[in-house]
Design a protein that fits this description.
The chain has three helices and eight strands; from the N terminus they run βαβββαβαβββ. By secondary structure, the chain is an alpha+beta fold. The protein has one domain: 2,3-Dihydroxybiphenyl 1,2-Dioxygenase, domain 1 (Roll). An eight-stranded mixed beta sheet has the order 2-3-4-1-5-8-7-6. It is globular and about 45 Å long. The chain starts with 5 loop residues before the first strand and ends in a 5-residue tail after the last strand.
Length: 136
């Protein structure tokens, strides 16, 4: 069975609002905002990075539109969390996950990734992603 090299793990933290989190990471710890995606008048998604460490935040409202099963947490419960893992061979990963139900169908995203999204046995949503080939 083919197995793909795992290249990067980026925690995706779901929060009610991203803006209150920024000062902690950017001002206090020196992270840079490397990706910012608005959702109406607020931030819907952000990637923060420093020294090879990357953290992604997505608002619960944005998650509900993007990957609905990941937003199913209830008020007062532990925030929903997913894992985003960049891989070298998405086809090999999908083959390795044969029989595991997809949370959403395999997709190519606007941010250039080919993604397979599943739920692990612990209930966490895991997004495996490979940079999509450029159109010929």
């Amino acid at each position: 069975m083919a197995r793909s090299e795992m290249r990067k793990l980026s925690p995706l933290l779901t929060v009610e609002a991203i803006e209150p989190c920024l000062s902690f990471w950017v001002d206090r710890l020196g992270f840079a905002k490397v990706v910012e995606v608005p959702d109406g008048s607020a931030l819907g998604f952000v990637i923060l990075a420093k020294d090879g460490v990357e953290i992604m935040y997505q608002s619960r409202a944005s998650v509900a539109k993007d990957i609905p099963p990941m937003a199913s947490g209830t008020a007062g419960a532990m925030p929903a969390m997913g894992l985003f893992i960049e891989v070298a061979d998405i086809d090999a990963v999908e083959q390795s996950l044969d029989g595991v139900a997809h949370v959403i169908p395999r997709r190519k995203t606007f941010y250039g990734m080919d993604e397979v999204v599943v739920r692990d046995p612990g209930g966490y949503v895991v997004v495996f992603a490979q940079p999509a080939a450029a159109p010929a």
